[in-house]
């Protein structure tokens, strides 16, 4: 498949309420947003100007204690997945592996992260949260197509002309809508949007999110269920290659 050369713009077209902070290609959106969240405030959207990845982070100011506010990761993940789905070719699937891995037609394409103040207790309201995501747009010559069957990039999947900036802008629009829903109706509708994309290890299993945000898996066979803790998953960041600074291959 021929690659489309995309220019990375210096500015983003964002909805009202967002303020963009652009980093150079070597920047780390998640680390920068966590480091400056207390000063920059809610709605700050940090993004890295690179052509091979859509890497961005947004600052949130929750009103709930950390144990409840942490569920904002579901909102961020749903907004990221919906942004990808809004730009992808028809009849293609965007899936989520609990809690923070994004797959496109089964191939790992990116994931999300959640940050909060280190000294904030579970029953305390955090001064800020940071949701960050990275989506692989192109292998950028690092890997030949088909050599990594468990991973993919958007330009390998028919996303003609879709660059990182377009994905970040789409994310911001979906996130704004979800924040409005959360504030006026609570998180239930957003959880449904997240749940409809959750991958199952085995067909027929029943998935549910507990009040604590953990994943509860009930096997179709009727055997004992299992619980996958949200906090453990967020700390593991299983999709991330920390050395390379992007999604695993």
Automatic annotation (TrEMBL):
One of its GO terms (molecular function) is ligase activity. Keywords: Ligase. This is Biotin/lipoate A/B protein ligase family protein. The keyword Ubl conjugation does not apply. Pfam families: BPL_LplA_LipB_2. It comes from the Bacteria. Residues 14-195 form the BPL/LPL catalytic domain. Signal peptide: none annotated.
């Amino acid at each position: 498949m021929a690659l489309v050369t995309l220019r990375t713009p210096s500015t983003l077209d964002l909805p009202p309420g967002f303020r963009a902070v652009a980093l150079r290609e070597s920047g780390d959106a998640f680390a920068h947003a966590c480091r400056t969240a207390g000063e920059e405030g809610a709605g700050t959207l940090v993004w890295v100007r690179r052509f091979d990845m859509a890497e961005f982070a947004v600052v949130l100011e929750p009103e709930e204690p950390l144990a409840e506010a942490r569920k904002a990761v579901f909102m961020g993940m749903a907004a990221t997945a919906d942004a990808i789905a809004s730009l992808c070719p028809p009849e293609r699937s965007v899936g989520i592996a609990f809690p923070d891995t994004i797959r496109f037609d089964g191939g790992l394409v990116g994931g999300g992260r959640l940050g909060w103040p280190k000294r904030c207790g579970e029953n305390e309201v955090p001064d800020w949260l940071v949701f960050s995501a990275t989506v692989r747009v192109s292998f950028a010559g690092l890997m030949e197509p088909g050599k990594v069957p468990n991973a993919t990039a958007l330009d390998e999947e028919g996303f003609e002309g879709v660059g990182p900036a377009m994905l970040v802008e789409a994310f911001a629009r979906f996130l704004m809508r979800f924040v409005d829903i959360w504030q006026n109706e609570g998180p239930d509708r957003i959880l449904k949007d997240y749940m409809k994309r959750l991958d199952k290890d085995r067909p027929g299993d029943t998935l549910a999110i507990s009040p604590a945000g953990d994943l509860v898996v009930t096997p179709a066979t009727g055997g004992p269920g299992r619980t996958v803790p949200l906090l453990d998953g967020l700390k593991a960041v299983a999709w991330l290659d920390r050395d390379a600074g992007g999604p695993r291959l």
